[in-house]
């Protein structure tokens, strides 16, 4: 048992050591180039960060490289620019990502813990009023979770007082806070937004 314990401890130290070495090298490279993502197709660092993240699932999702936070096999970017929904989505796509899709309570809780202002998410009813679809074409029935605001006036309400075309894009939180919930809002509004990409599709196969 003691040998097993020592063995586990050594493995842990070794893995952590490798991680810090990679992180140090990445920082050094970033400082030198002033260009944080210097190669597009294969980003070994992203893959390794995700691997370490899944190895140490007890750790919180705080590992961050080039502004992207790795959490449970996905990378998230919390953008500080404010844009309308379509431009937000285009910005994510230009980074080899898309607006975030929220498919579990864990993911919702993680995102809520990171934001201090309302953010666009990748959910809309632009095609058919009342039929909410994620940017990856999944419906809310398919993902099985939804977190619409339900205290008081229920969302989505397709409110038309401000924008006669209604509200067809979803945000996490509203201007009053309420970061635990989703709201439909006019797609023309400018908000911060969250991009998400899966590691393997964008990093190893380089289709960004
Ligand atoms: Ca709507
Ligand atoms: Ca609304």
Main sheet makeup: 9 strands, mixed
CATH classification class of the largest domain: Alpha Beta
* Bound ligands, named by name, code or SMILES: calcium ion
Q: Identify low-pLDDT runs.
A: 33-42, 201-208
Q: Quickly give the structural class.
A: alpha+beta
Order of helices and strands: HHEEEHEHEEHEEEH
Number of helices: 6
Instruction: Tell me, briefly, the overall form.
Output: globular
Distance between the termini: 47 Å
Q: Radius of gyration in whole Å, from Cα?
A: 19 Å
Total beta-strand segments: 9
Number of structurally distinct domains: 2
Organism: Sinocyclocheilus grahami
Protein name: C-type lectin domain-containing protein
InterPro entries: C-type_lectin-like (IPR001304), C-type_lectin-like/link_sf (IPR016186), C-type_lectin/matrix_domain (IPR050828), C-type_lectin_CS (IPR018378), CD209-like_CTLD (IPR033989), CTDL_fold (IPR016187)
Subcellular location: Cell membrane
Describe the structure.
Residues 71-196 form the C-type lectin domain. It is a single-pass type II membrane protein. GO terms for molecular function: carbohydrate binding. Its main location: membrane. It holds the Pfam family Lectin_C. With 208 residues, the protein is α+β, with helices and mostly antiparallel strands. It has two domains: 1-72, no CATH class; 78-208, Mannose-Binding Protein A, subunit A (Mannose-Binding Protein A, Chain A, Roll), CATH 3.10.100.10. The protein is built from six helices and nine strands, in the order H-H-E-E-E-H-E-H-E-E-H-E-E-E-H. The chain has helices at 2-33, 44-55, 85-94, 105-114, 140-143, 199-204; strands at residues 64-65, 68-71, 74-83, 98-99, 119-124, 133-134, 169-174, 177-185, 191-198. Strands 1, 2, 3, 4, 5, 6, 7, 8 and 9 form a nine-stranded mixed β-sheet that branches. A hairpin with an 8-residue loop joins strand 5 (119-124) and strand 6 (133-134). Helix 1 (2-33) runs antiparallel to helix 2. It is globular and about 50 Å long. The relative contact order is 0.16. It binds calcium ion (2 copies). One calcium ion binds at residues 155-157, 159, 167, 183-185.
